[in-house]
Structure formats: C-alpha cells, structure tokens
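We now fix the convention by which a protein and its fold are recorded. These numbers are not coordinates but entries in a learned vocabulary of local backbone shapes. A record is reproduced here so that you can trace the correspondence yourselves:
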Amino acid sequence: MDQKSPNEHAKFSTPSDAYLQQLNSEPLSTTTPPLIQIESAIVEKNSENYFVSLGDEIGQYGRKDFTVCFWFKTSEKSRYFDIAGNRIDGSHGNFFCIRMTGIHESWPEGRMMIEVDENGNGLNYNSVESKATGLNDGKWHHVLIVRKGNSLKAYIDGEFSGGNEGKGIANIKNPTDFRLGRSYSGFENVGIEFHDFRIYEVALTEEDVMIIYRRSFEVYCEEAKILKFEEKDA
C-alpha cells in the first residue's frame, strides 16, 4: 500500500520569508523563481511505503530545460531505491527519476543514477551515474541536476559528478505525481530527509551551481559539514 503526505510519517514544510531572504541574498543568472521550493521534508521507512507527494503538475517538463537541487540524508541499504521522481515503470517509460544503490552485487554503494525517458521503447533515454559514491552514509549531501537540451549533468556537494548527452530531448509528460522517498512501486520506500528542495524550469549555469551550494552551505553548516536543522511541522 502507498501512503501520500501529509501525515506523521511523510511531511514537508514550505519556506518562510526569512529563510528565502537568507538563501537568495546572492543573485543567480536567472530571474525565474523556482517552480517549487521546500524548506524540509522527512519520509520514514516502513511497511506502509510512505512518500511525500508534490502533485502531478510538478515534473511535467515536456522538452523544457530544468534544474532540480536539494540537500538529502539517508542511511538506506536496499539494493536499489528511489530518491525522487515520477517513475512508475520498471523499465523504459515516460519519467524523470533519481535513484541510488545500497548494498548491490555489482555497483558501488551509495552511487546515484539520474534518468530521463520518453516512452516504453527508450526514445531519447538518457542517464548519468554519479562519480561520487558512498552517498548513503547518513550524512548531508547536496545534489544539483541540470537538463539543458539533450544534455544531463549532475553536481554532488558542489562538484561536477557526471554528465551525458541523449540522442534527443525526452518529452516528459505523464499522469504520475512527483514523489520524494519513493517513485517506482516495485521498490520499497526509503527513510530519508530533505532540505531546500527546489525545481527550476530553466537550466542553471555552473556559476549558479556554486552560488546555490555556497549559500545553502553557509546558511546551514556550522562545523565540518555538520548540518543542524530545526524540526519543522508539516
């Protein structure tokens, strides 16, 4: 059984004006505000497979450029699990999805995979496997994903971590809601925390990547990349 948010097991909070003022004190190259920005989200791992739903209007990118970025923390060890996305297909389909390995027989633990796909035949499919691994170490990590045209790039903790180009631009339009903590129903949900989750309907630049990472790092980090967040109610 799937359980959507909000409830005591899967919840999120929207940002306050003071929060936004701190984070956005250094301007980006774009004047386009985020399509959505969440201050924090928490999903508990349990047999009910809870997840946070952002609704079915989020993630309908079509062929537009987009950027997704967030801080996350998980200690999940499942063989393969979803971080975020609107994927319901076990193989090819129409979706955007962010996945990670736990204890896997052939892949390193804690490697992230980002995928876009257009249909069941894999039209314009593209994927990136992160150079960074060990991301399920229970510590906070920052992820920023940029699609520009047929290019897909990933930045982990402020550094470039992989990129690829597809044959074309995947047209992502499906009736599925965009979820945090679970996407494909064949996987169990994941115990995970998010902070400063954003989606832009533009491709941010490498300079923007560093601004977002630096500003959010300065706002939340105290010492040695240890992040301390206040608990927020849904």
Notes: The chain has two helices and 15 strands.
